[in-house]
Amino acid sequence: MVRYLIRRIGMFLPTLLASSFLIFAFIRLIPGDPAAVMLGDQATPEAVAALRAEMGLEQSLLHQYIIWLTAALTGDLGKSIFFQVPVLDLIVDGLETSVLLALFSMVWIVILGLPIGMLAAARRGSLLDQGLSGLAMFLASVPTFWVGLYLILIFAATLGWLPSSGYPSIFEDGGITNLRYLLLPSLALAAPNAALIIRLTRASMLDVYREDYVRTARAKGLHPLAVVVRHVFRNALLTVVSAIGFTVAALISEAVVTETVFSLPGIGRMVVQSILRRDYPVIQGTILMIVLLYLTINLVVDILYAWLDPRVKLR
Amino acid sequence: MIIVRPFSRFLFAATVVTAGSLASLAVQAQDTLRYATIGEPPSLDQHVVTSDLATTIAHHMFEGLYTFDANYEPQPLLASGDEVSDDGMTITIHLRDNVRFHDGQPMTSEDVVASLKRWGEHGSRGKLLFANIEDVSASGPHSVTLTFTQPFGPWKNLLAFINGGPAIYPASVAGGHDATPIPTDQYVGTGPYVFGEWRPNRYVELLRFDDYESPPGPASGYAGERVANFERLHFIPVPDPGTRVNGVRAGDYDYAESMPSDLIDELDADPAANVVLNGGPIFGLVFVNSNAGPLMDNVTLRQAIQAALNKEDALRVSIGPEKLWRANGSFLPDGNAWHSEAGTGRFSEGDAEKAAGLAADADYDGTPIKFLVSTNYAFHYDQAVVFTRQLLEAGINVQMVVVDWATLIQKRAQPEEWDLFFTHHGFVPDPILISVMNDNYPGWWATAEKQALKAAFTETNDPDARKATWADIQALIYEQVPTMKTGDVYTYNIASPALSGIEGTTLIWPHFWGVSR
What we know:
Structural class of chain A: mainly alpha
Strand order of the largest sheet of chain B: 8-9-10-1-11-19-12-20
Largest interface: A-B, 56 and 62 residues
Number of helices of chain A: 13
CATH architecture of the largest domain in chain A: Orthogonal Bundle
Largest sheet of chain A: none
Distance between the termini of chain B: 50 Å
Helix content of chain B: 25-40%
Shape of chain B: globular
Number of strands of chain A: 0
Number of strands of chain B: 20
Distance between the termini of chain A: 12 Å
CATH class of the largest domain in chain A: Mainly Alpha
Strand content of chain A: under 5%
Shape of chain A: globular
Largest sheet of chain B: 8 strands, mixed
Oligomer: heterodimer
Helix content of chain A: over 70%
Number of helices of chain B: 15
Number of domains of chain A: 2
């Protein structure tokens, strides 16, 4: 086990190092100059060149990379060219929004996806089943930005129940009540994923319905609700839970559109805006953090697998 | 019971906190003007940054010596008056003696000299003025003298244009920085609002400057009395136009900029939003490469391209509602003192046959012409598509090179990368500020005829002589085709009906002194 751990952690560091270099180099392969973007349309070439020199962009790529990597190893991801504030502060601020948005979306996905899927499966072939399956198809088909704009139009502009956009931190004025800013965005983000869970829950439950032990449970006179909850749903849940796990990762990348439509200060919108501005430190810092997150999760999962199944270590 | 009691206490406490929080939000909302912007500015340093969004925010806290009134005439702001010598070579500007910076220090000529020098050395617009200036010095605690190498007519307009302009900073700030934008903790100005904080991706906050001394006189345009009614201004990035519209309708924003053109009729009829037209139109420009490539010195081929274009078609396709565009060949709009019809007969001929004939006269052999265009601005791309089709119909082989804006501004600095590029220009109150007048702007138009006219244009203080020369320059632009204007576009914003003091038209950038809820 110890040898396996050493080998696995030994792979982690080179992967992170290679990723950091690829991120650093690829960003700079995109044409465009952050100094020119910053100074605007009327800037003289001399002013742009002076600002480039000030930013250290005239040094060799390798030199820039070594400086950045050395600082990154101490937790310093540099300063945003555009905002002139530490990248780490921007990431931390953005993560609050993105993580809360993902969590709220997960809640919507679960509270919409599972009961509707169960209901459709329990009433399979009925008009209700067809209606709910149609709803799932609709939610899966419509783009997130469209759902978002209509939610704003109905619940913010027309009914005035919820804010239309933005998200003040829960650590600011308003405190926990600021979470109401995330209700509509999380619903918009959850819609296509909830549709997936509805369909998956329905299909998994229908598969389990055909199992012999379900027939046995019915035959011995168990209450239909008890059959569904205790025998069908519990067994169908294994597949659904795996799918929900995958959905968590997808939510982070899908959040870009939602964060733009609802003007949320999350990391998805920040990365896209930073690419347009060629704000290299923010792009590379944020993507590196995401890579680090994914590598860490993979490492933990691999270690857990090895602990659960000793055969893994032999492979 | 053991569980319920603490829970009920928690519930009570949460209700009190929530109610308190909502009440404090409501109070804050009353005192805060919330402005939905299209994005975030690169910096608010007016000396070196020419972003319109930066000026929309910054002109509430930074002021110049002069500003424009409702007729686009320069009027004193931090200045109290000026004297011009008979030969036009020496100008003494007197300063108001009651102006204080946000840090409490009085504004003196030392601050003005340091600010003008930094702007002249590092600001793109400052170089235009300082190319003609021999010396700037303090001639008293509240007077500054500019000594010119030759008379320079547009001096006051350049000092009054705050976008990329000579904002007055304390000498300790202006003297300590070069071309790099100054950091936010040194944003110290003289305006009715003080810099509060910049929360990246969230908002820029300005706070009312309680010790502000307003310039005298009735308010007109940006001139005259300035009263800050709101305690704070929040400029909030809301990139999606649909969200900005619905945000104003929902009461989450008081003002939103850059509305989609196709919504103008709907918003005009909407009681939840007042339409505010931008008085100064923006206009598209297709620059022609005078430094390299097949168009470099082939004026006849340039004229062929110009003759092929029907600008009205392009405006209709790209903008839509006719109240938001004018197929106007004059570089300054109708009704403006600089408006001229000189040369505009060639503005929008859309004559493929004539274009083909001119191309043949130019010995055009079908060499591909690289047309650099960005997708960041929808109307750039839409108009470029229409123009490309029109040029192909005239037998001119144009190939669009479609990139994002950051790439475009890098590529256009490299003469071998393009033959035509699309950009747009904001409204300016003096033609000297139009980019084609700058010999170093990509396109690099600097013919002998231009130089002679430009010298005549700037070396006189006589307004009539300057207007006549500008008409000659405009005619020369249509003759030598260094750039092609594509028509005027009137962008518009929306304001909450609860705001009072908002006029139906903005001068150039919206301002919120004199506005209340």
